[in-house]
Amino acid sequence: GPAIALGIMRAQAAVPELQRIAADIDQEDEVRAHVIIALGKLGDKSSIPFLTKSGQGLNDKKSQIQRSSAIALCAVGSVSRSISTCIQDSTTASAVSAVRGSDSPRS
Prior knowledge:
Blueprint: H1 2-8, H2 15-23, H3 29-42, H4 48-52, H5 63-75, H6 81-88, H7 92-101
Helix pairs in contact: 1-3, 2-3, 3-5, 5-6, 5-7, 6-7
């Protein structure tokens, strides 16, 4: 969707608004998941705290948000390449577990 396009375009000016949408639990899960992926594609490390915060990102109640957060953390380079490869070929539970079990996210 449009959020992912912003990530591909490297539209850094969109980061604050994308972070707001990603944190808004009233947004549809699919919208939030795409926004989180866009944040990862932007490579903006200021998104790492949201992606790892209690109750958000990796710790969200929705598996779609957890998986998107794991992918985004890989995209911003906060986890090792081997973890990144694991996430691409795994289920949500194993992807999130792989990121949680890795070294602390690098900021």
